[in-house]
Amino acid sequence: MNGSDGGDGPGPDPDVLEELELWGGPDDGDDRPDPPGGDRGPPSDAAATAGAHRAATGGRVVLVGTPIGNLGDLSPRAVQALEGSDVIYCEDTRHSRKLLTHAGITGTPLRSLHQHNEDDRIDEVIRTAADGGTVAVISDAGMPGISDPGRRVVAAAARSGVTVTVVPGPSAVLAALVASGLPTDRFCFEGFLPRSGTGRRERLASLATESRTVVLFEAPGRVAATLRDLVDACGGDRPVSVARELTKLHEEVWRGPLAELAARAAAEPVRGEVVLVLGGAAPAGPAAVDDAVLTSALADRLSAGERTRGVVDDLAAAFGVPRRRVYGLALALRDRTAEDPGGDGRVGSGPPGPAPE
Length: 357
Prior knowledge:
The chain is an alpha/beta fold. It is 41% helix and 14% strand. It has three domains: 42-170, Tetrapyrrole methylase, N-terminal domain (Cobalt-precorrin-4 Transmethylase, domain 1); 182-278, 2-Layer Sandwich (Methyltransferase, Cobalt-precorrin-4 Transmethylase, Domain 2), CATH 3.30.950.10; 285-357. The protein has a five-stranded parallel sheet, with helices on both faces. Strands 6-7-10-8-9 form a five-stranded mixed sheet. Helix 4 links the parallel strand 2 and strand 3 (110-112).
């Protein structure tokens, strides 16, 4: 299937072969394609049907979610979408070839699309879809575009008026979140933290006050260091979950306070794919209010002729401070006003009301 196309003429240009990353070569660790015009074997029924009708239906880009570990999680709809595509863009052609072999999909060209070449591939993806082709985009695991290539392709397709559809699939974010036991009604996804520097410090500082549950990705070799940094930023009592190898044979979830899991990760090196789920910060208490702020508010309203009791009640509620404190400031203000010859005599007007218990 590699080499010449069966004719008597010269073989294909090696530079062309290197550029074309079509599936069809032997599984020898490289991505050598079939030669242009070579025999790739008969297409599957779904692929033939898609090719016959693509002019009538219009082209599209299809984002296909793939398993995050367990190949049994590849959905029938995902298989159908991949089988019916004219070309599949993936992060690693060798990795994706194994997935397609498992699904029994043969004859569909594979092209690489990863973080280093996504910008270079955008034009050909859009051109193929604009010409009526169906382009599938997958990542090594999970949904493309989530901490994986694909987002810029989708943005370009949207600008060009190319239809974009999604075949949902397994999600490491949601799997770790629901397994954590932490609140799921409000959460945010932080992806990978910067490895070092100001960017990392700023992100950690923002997590210290984040009230929602936070989902983070981390490489196994950096889990212990990240947990230590989270202890420093958020405190050792903040709840956290460490999920590794989700959906796989050695799936494991640790749950507990940050300090405890940081110590455990330091003692037991973490292996495999890892997702961290961090509990949200406790609601902040009322902000400290300076006496000068309360006294100024009291002076404004009492000077306007309002009764002390009502003003004290209103300001205590508005600033979230004890009524006793506001009442004491009101009495002090009244005394100062009485001693000031230039006072207007209205600050202490009306009975002050009973002192708080």
